[in-house]
Write a structure and sequence with these properties.
This protein is of the alpha/beta class. The chain is built from 15 helices and 14 strands. It is globular.
Length: about 425
């Protein structure tokens, strides 16, 4: 599509999105005021890059978030196949009881969270549904929400759709790594804070919160009386001996925390669309209504496959997957650090790096457009994860080694063709 045609299309989309009849919540989720702050609108920019990649064709993706080089073990896939024959009916709003019982055992064992399988745990369509539904349950219009920045790109629109007002809490970039900065959180938290939203590990920065950092956050939450929504999608994706801790396990936190988990990322099961949430029974009661009136139930295939994960021996698969991801992380970090103008972090969790590209002289959107046009490789602009993510891009290492190598060859060549001088 020619540039003028693309521009006209963008304007048409924006005009439609701003139509007077459209619900306020949808309009606010599109974040139009980013543009007045000098940023591209993250929602339309993501579409623009997607459209451009489609139009160019033959693009190597280093931008997605799904494990590309392995399937879950045979016994998990067998359980899914069996479900097709043995579980043909609605699984019920609460899902299968044996699944919830297995989830309760896992939460106790892996997360130190004690939860009643009958009224404190519900199956969901991945962790994505937990984000959307929890925010709708917990937030009233204009409630104050603290959100780490950078943070998973879907979270800000979901908070906005639920009516929340966001105060960003910057994670710190020290030139080599991303870090949690308690002072930054303490500065903006107040008695007006209703909710803190976090992903642990953090997508895109790969920050894995330590027990003592979670204790600091929990102390603040109890003192100022706010709730926490903890997205623990990447609890099983950990490197260099990092250990996952759940904030809901800390004293006085179960009663003020909703935690979202998923089988998607840890077990290469993004297509199964199965996750779960745990929290106080009163919140779960509202979640029951949302499930009942929106989706009716989660898929039987997803639940039976996830039950097999919980009751089978996943350890060999997990160990192999982690070693494979860690090798690819190290390869990617080393390749990116060789490129003038780029300084790459070495994340301890998730499967993304979030390097600083400011030395190239490009904004993150310019960088992504440049490598897409000149190298046919896609990476994600940092501002999609919050304003503090600008100056960085997200590059994924969940793909096969061959795909990562091909993508990096293309990215390196595209950067070598960069017209402007580079200040390293
Ligand atoms: C931090 C985080 N939370 C939630 C999700 C949603 O994933 P799913 O619904 O497949 O669990 C993602 C997906 O990329 C993610 O990165």
């Amino acid at each position: 599509m020619a540039d003028t045609k693309r521009q006209a299309r963008r304007e048409r989309l924006n005009a439609a999105a701003n139509a007077p009849w459209l619900a306020d919540r949808m309009k606010s989720a599109l974040m139009p005021e980013y543009e007045s702050d000098g940023f591209p609108n993250p929602v339309t920019a993501a579409r623009h890059l997607g459209d451009l990649a489609e139009e160019l064709g033959d693009v190597v993706s280093l931008s997605g978030g799904t494990i590309g080089d392995r399937l879950p073990p045979d016994f998990v896939r067998d359980a899914a196949r069996e479900a097709v024959d043995k579980y043909p009916h609605y699984p019920g709003v609460k899902g299968y009881r044996d699944f919830r019982v297995a989830l309760a055992a896992k939460l106790e064992r892996d997360n130190a969270i004690t939860a009643d399988p009958d009224d404190e745990i519900l199956p969901t369509i991945g962790c994505q549904q937990v984000i959307d539904s929890t925010l709708r349950i917990l937030l009233n219009r204009d409630d104050d929400v603290l959100l780490f920045d950078p943070e998973y790109a879907s979270t800000e629109p979901a908070i906005r759709m639920a009516g929340g007002r966001i105060t960003p809490v910057p994670l710190a970039w020290d030139g080599a790594e991303w870090r949690f900065d308690f002072e930054a959180l303490a500065r903006v938290a107040s008695h007006k804070t209703k909710l803190l939203v976090m992903s642990n590990g953090n997508n895109p920065a790969g920050v894995v919160y330590t027990q003592s950092q979670l204790e600091q956050i929990a102390d603040l939450a109890r003192t100022l009386d706010f709730w926490v929504f903890s997205d623990e999608e990447y609890e099983k994706t950990l490197f260099d001996g990092a250990v996952h801790h759940s904030i809901a396990a800390l004293p006085g936190m179960h009663e003020r925390t909703v935690t979202g988990f998923s089988f998607s990322k840890g077990y290469a099961m993004t297509a199964y669309r199965i996750g779960y949430m745990v929290g106080p029974a009163a919140v779960m009661d509202h979640m029951h209504s949302i499930l009942r009136f929106s989706i009716q139930a989660c898929s039987a295939v997803g639940q039976r496959a996830a039950h097999a994960v919980l009751t089978g021996d996943m350890q060999p698969w997990l160990a192999d997957n982690t070693a494979n991801l860690q090798r690819k992380r190290d390869y990617l970090v080393q390749r990116l650090n060789r490129i003038p103008g780029i300084r790459c972090n070495t994340p301890r969790g998730c499967y993304f790096v979030f390097p600083d590209i400011r030395g190239t002289g490009l904004t993150s959107l310019e960088f992504c457009e440049h490598v897409l046009r000149e190298g046919r490789v896609s990476v994600t602009p940092g501002f999609e994860f919050g304003r503090h993510g600008e100056g960085h891009v997200r590059v994924s290492f969940c793909f096969s080694q061959a795909q990562i190598e091909a993508g990096m060859d293309r990215l390196e060549q595209a950067m070598a063709r960069l017209p402007q001088p580079v200040s390293a």
